[in-house]
Amino acid sequence: MEKRIEIYDTTLRDGTQAENFNLSVEDKIRIALRLDEFGVDFIEGGWPGANPASTEFFREMRNYRLNTSRLMAFGSTRLFRNPAEEDANLAALVDSGSDGITIFGKSWDIHVTEALGIGLDDNLTIIADSLAFLRPRVEHLFYDAEHFFDGYKANPEYALATLARAVEGGADRLVLCDTNGGTLPHEIRGIIKAVQEFFAARGEEPALGIHAHNDSGVAVANSLIAVDQGAVQVQGTINGYGERCGNANLTTIIPCLALKMGCELTVARKENLEQLTGVSRFVSELANLTPDRYQPFVGDAAFAHKGGIHVSAVRKNPLTYEHVEPERVGNQRRILISDQAGRSNVLHKARKFGIELEPGDPVVSAILAEVKNMENQGYQFEGAEASFELLMRRAIGGHRRYFDLHGFRVISQKDENANPSLDEATIRIDVGGETVHTAALGDGPVNALDNALRKALLGSYPALAEMRLEDYKVRVLASDHGTGARVRVLIQSSDNGSTWSTVGVSHDIIEASWLALVDSITYKLMKDDGLVGR
Prior knowledge:
Blueprint: E1 6-9, H1 25-38, E2 42-46, H2 52-61, E3 70-76, H3 88-95, E4 100-106, H4 109-116, H5 120-134, E5 140-146, H6 148-154, H7 156-169, E6 173-178, H8 185-201, E7 207-212, H9 219-228, E8 233-236, H10 250-260, H11 270-273, H12 276-286, H13 308-316, H14 340-352, H15 362-377, H16 385-395, E9 404-413, E10 422-431, E11 434-442, H17 445-457, E12 468-476, E13 487-494, E14 499-506, H18 509-528
Parallel strand pairs: 1-2, 1-8, 2-3, 3-4, 4-5, 5-6, 6-7, 7-8
Antiparallel strand pairs: 9-10, 10-11, 12-13, 13-14
């Protein structure tokens, strides 16, 4: 019988502590919805009350329904000076409206006496009190034993006592945390065994989880060993993002559990696991970070074959140099011209967009060739499905041109004073056989161009008045070219009924923005005509 393992994603909380990793509330919502579609069991949304963004995220998430995942709020045990019913932190957790709560407490005696400045018994009290207060107020209640492995090595009796009090308080899961990331795999195995023996002697068998950091480069290994030792929950982040050297990487852990250890996971269903590479790149795009091409399973190089002997062998039988089939994790082999993984991805997207294509249809090959050509230029479509759908519609002749560009000009004027720059765009386009020439100001050159284009189109397409530009991201590609590098622009737009994302790439940031804007407006107009987004 397969062992059931829960996947607990903390990208939106622990992941955001990584250097240069920043997400807006809107980004966090989009990632949460994508993780729900992917099928993770629990999504940790942040620490409500700790900052306005986390509080707003939980408030906004009340407007969305998660189908697979449970949304978790994160916080600490009560302050020693506050009774549980008067503790603001615990109140914020309850008020978040989340499906569950994860609280952390101190397991290492040095943190109790020096960081909290309280007695060891006092810490045991606040652990039990906090959990007992939350237990009747929430469906799922997990306890993160912070610094547990370091605490156990320093004072095993006390570290185990903190776990015992968490069980008394009503925790559903005891999550053992390697917070400093300094514990090695052989230590993990021995300490978890000691925890199990401790509770067995008490006639108890609490469900264990693991939360590993990667400071020694073994977070994935530690997580897999914990599962092998009996842990039922693994906490980690997409792509291993996290403070210092990162957290345990779920995009590596999930396929290892599903494909190599025979574990039962919600995300291990075929249609879920095939989303793995897309989810990895989606999170990278929204965080505006370059994906790690050498990352196991999901990196561009994970199934790339260059050596002549390797290529020859893989052509005969991919098992010779591939430990899993790339399409099982949504990736693709990068040596075959008739790349079946790429073909299957095109067919999958076509079905999603309501486009009828057969595997042998020449259009599939044409789409695949165009995608590869555009990816070589720097395009990535994981975070820009609207642009990908338009690409497919063009290939089957279902694309509609609503306007044609004659030309545009953008002027940015800056004086020597502290005044903001003045940006103006002029544009000439053909709309319905007539030439329209407009100009507009904006907050920056891209905004000016956006305003000028909308101004030119509103007379013919008044529905554009309800369209909004929600987000705008710029990624510099191949930065070794300096100011001559290509840039990728990702735009998120919305109207009263839906949200969509488009992408543009160029050496010129204005042109890249223009390409993304044109796709965005075209998608809106085609959607209103019932031609896309079905």
